[in-house]
Design goal:
Layout (H helix, E strand, L loop, with lengths): L7 E5 L4 H12 L3 E6 L2 H10 L4 E4 L5 H10 L5 E4 L14 H29 L3 E5 L12 H23 L5 E5 L26 H15 L5 H14 L3 E2 L6 H12 L11
Parallel strand pairs: 1-2, 1-4, 2-3, 4-5, 5-6, 6-7
The structure holds nicotinamide-adenine-dinucleotide (NAD).
Length: 271
């Protein structure tokens, strides 16, 4: 889609971080905005910054919420399935609540978004889907296995969606966003964790991993606005992979080489 002006973008996770930055970048392009999140105060603030936007409370892990969001929009052309959360922990310490929470927000959200929006984009013969994965969808850093599983699944889902659309001859585009660390609220995603999926307490391992994640996220050199500009460019150029942090490509290459050489995976954070 090379002309965005006057078109409508639906963005989830738009109350903070990358979602807010994408919304503002789309507003800068002259797009209409439909914003979704569980954080209504944050949505209100994004709408204020964008000057004009419609927004609604949507829990992206819930099919009915995403269906209602899609049904409420008169028009939609760009769909950003972006909301996400980041539990930590050595895998054997993660609870079923961790899995349900992260699979719900990071993966079911994208499944619902594709089911609710893509038939409409296909029927109108125009549109672009941006799924926010992570470099953790292309490599598997230690200490965040639950997150890695959700993000690898989002990459696989996006690649499959691309193939299915191409096979049908649809012009609808797909991009998968795979950033490394960007300073946002992601290391504090527990703030929006539903009470029914809460953990009694973090283990010592998890506390340490959470601190590391906080430091890594806050030290990210690219801003959310830089990432949002890369998303706008990818939509205009109809580019599939959005790898915002080129230095991480060495770790992706190492993983691919380890697979092809059939050797044990090297730690991507130690390369
Ligand atoms: N910041 C990074 O370093 C980084 C790196 C790679 C990928 N990502 C991905 O970017 C995406 C955006 O995260 P961010 O970094 O902007 O973090 P963020 O915490 O600033 O924003 C995430 C947003 O998702 C919302 N959210 C959480 N649960 C929700 C739910 N059930 N329904 C609807 N919205 C919900 C939050 O309220 C928040 O506004 C996520 O998918 C994340 O995994 C972030």
């Amino acid at each position: 889609m090379n002309i965005l002006h006057g078109k409508t973008a639906a963005v989830t996770g738009a109350a903070s971080g990358l979602g807010r930055a994408m919304a503002l970048a789309f507003a800068h392009e002259g797009m209409n905005l439909a914003l979704a999140d569980v954080d209504e105060k944050g949505l209100e603030e994004t709408a204020r910054l964008a000057k004009s936007a419609s927004w609604q409370r949507v829990d992206v892990s819930k099919a009915a919420d995403v269906d209602a969001f899609a049904a409420s929009l008169k028009e939609v052309h760009v769909v950003c399935n972006n909301a996400g959360v980041s539990p930590v922990g050595p895998l054997w310490e993660n609870t079923t609540a961790d899995w349900q929470w992260a699979l719900g927000v990071n993966l079911w959200s994208v499944i619902h978004g594709v089911r609710a929006f893509v038939p409409r984009l296909v029927a109108q013969g125009e549109g672009h889907v941006v799924n926010t994965a992570s470099v953790a969808g292309l490599i598997s850093p230690p200490g965040m296995g639950v997150y890695n599983v959700t993000k690898h699944a989002v990459v696989a889902l996006s690649e499959s969606l691309h193939h299915d659309l191409r096979l049908q001859g649809s012009p609808v585009g797909v991009s998968v966003l795979c950033p490394a660390y960007v300073p946002t609220g992601i290391s504090n995603s527990e703030r929006n964790r539903p009470q029914e999926l809460a953990n009694p307490a973090l283990s010592e391992h998890q506390k340490a991993l959470k601190e590391n994640l906080k430091k890594a996220v806050s030290s990210g050199k690219l801003t959310a606005d830089d990432v949002a500009r890369a998303v706008v460019a990818a939509i205009k150029e109809n580019r599939f992979y959005i790898l915002t942090h080129p230095r991480i490509k060495g770790a992706i290459q190492a993983r691919m080489e380890d697979v092809l050489q059939e050797r044990a995976p090297r730690n991507p954070l130690a390369l």
